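Lab notebook: predicted structure, single chain.

Context: the supervisor wants predicted structures on file for every construct in the current expression panel, including those that have not yet been purified. This is the next one on the list. No modifications to the sequence; it matches the entry in the shared construct table.
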Amino acid sequence: MKIKDISLDNRPRERLIKQGINVLSDAELLALILKTGNKNENVIDMSNRLISKFGFDKLSECSLKELEEIKGIGTAKACEIVALFELNKRHSYSKVQGKPIKNSKDVYDYCISRLPFTDREQFMILHLDTKNKIVKDEIISVGTLNGSIAHPREVFKSAIKESSNAIILVHNHPSGDPNPSDEDLEITKRLIDSGELLNIKVLDHVIIGKNNYWSWNEKE
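Prediction complete. Output recorded below exactly as produced.
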C-alpha cells in the first residue's frame, strides 16, 4: 500500500498535527524523518522493517556505509538516519554542557556523545573545576578488543597539567555490558588511592554500555 492510499486521518503527519506527537509509534516517527519509501514499500513499512530487524540500538550504531548496505536504504536516507541519532546524542550532551556534574547520570549524558562507540575500549578523563564543572575531556588511551590501558602516570599527568580540582574516570565496554571486570575494579581502587596522595580527588568511574552505564559510586 502506498502512502497516498492510506486515509488522511491515519497518515503520520496528519496524526501528529491533529493528535500530537505522543500518539505516533516509533515507526511513524522514523517515517516522518525518512519522508518517502521506495517502489516496493511505503515509508511506514520501511520504518517498521528497520526497527523490527535492527532495533534502535543497532540502528543508532550503524555507520553511513553500513546503512547504505541495507536493502532499500540509499545514501540520502542513510544520511537522514545518521543525522537523527547524532542530533539525539548532541541533545544529551547539551543538557549537561557548562553545568556542574551532580551524579553519574550527568556523566553518562555528557559522555554518550563524546565517547565514540567502537570495538575498542577507550579511557576518558573528565577534568573538573572547584564547582564540578567540566573544563576539559580527553581520551588518554585506547585499548585492545578486550581491555583498555589506564596507567596512573598517564591519568594524573593529564590532571596535573590541567590543574584539575578533581577528575572522573570514564570508559566504554564494546560488548555493551557496562558491568565492571575485576581489572576495572582494581584499576579504579588504584587510581583513587593515587589521587589521594596527589590531592586530586577521583569522584567516580563510569563505564558506558549500550544505553546504560555502571558507576563506582552507585555500585552498592
